[in-house]
Specification:
Elements lengths: L5 E12 L2 E12 L3 E5 L6 H8 L7 E6 L2 E2 L5 H7 L1 E3 L12 H9 L16 H13 L15 H13 L5 E5 L7 H14 L4 E5 L3 H7 L2 E6 L2 E6 L1 H6 L1 H8 L7
Parallel strand pairs: 3-8, 3-9, 6-7, 7-8
Antiparallel strand pairs: 1-2, 1-4, 4-5, 9-10
The protein binds adenosine-5'-triphosphate.
Length: 253
Amino acid sequence: MESTDTILQVQGLSVSFGALRAVDSVDMAVRRSGVTSLIGPNGAGKSTLFNLISGAIRPSAGKVLFNGVNVTGWSPHKLLRAGMARSFQITNLFFDMSVRENLRLASQILEPAGKAWWPLSRSHRAAERVEEQLERFSLQGRADALAGELSHGEQRRLEIAVALASGPQLLMLDEPTQGMSHGDTQEAAQLIKTLSSEVGILLVEHDVNLVMDVSDHIVVLSQGKKLAEGRPADVRANPQVQAAYFGGAHAAA
Ligand SMILES: Nc1ncnc2c1ncn2[C@@H]1O[C@H](COP(=O)(O)OP(=O)(O)OP(=O)(O)O)[C@@H](O)[C@H]1O
């Protein structure tokens, strides 16, 4: 992979929980555009790798390079300011605030400290961004509703909008379609694909069909190690992947 195409590089990343090597010397890269997905059976280490990349936990060995800069051990907030946003499965929404207020706070994250709580009228740029996001994520009609009152599908859309509101270069999505209906999942897949032309996406998702549809590149983890990587068709055809994943006892993971 050309280094100029690469937004994120992971080198020899490892972490152990007691005797368990949950992530074991993983190398991988994410391009500036397109969708890179992480798949693997239950317990393969996907969430742990996500947590290592996004600064939620510290690695015991290895490096994370973002835009060529060594960001290993940076806090999630510092990474967000540098352009790495992660959606946290709804937990990053304020349920007792309106949809518009959720987006406003998220879009002001990059503004000087202390201004985030200014009234909307004081920050025109942020206000414009908020309206753009409302339209893009089909939430205009719900702008004044409390986030806690939205349907599950709407909350998932808002969550992605919130993660995007700070204008990141890398968007990390953690099971964005979990709990969605089939129709909402199809819409979310389309949205992810569209977004990936303007922002690099790293996706962890249990819905293998969705992963196969939207991904440009797939990394397969098994027992903390990288088992295989490549284009969707190549990964699906890989006998090791089939044995460990598609054909295995955890095929639905
Ligand atoms: N904080 C922790 N303390 C101890 N063990 C942990 C911790 N977090 C994860 N593990 C273990 O590390 C291994 C990898 O877990 P992880 O959640 O990263 O896998 P995963 O691929 O995301 O699984 P799933 O598909 O079930 O979400 C598992 O064996 C898990 O039990």
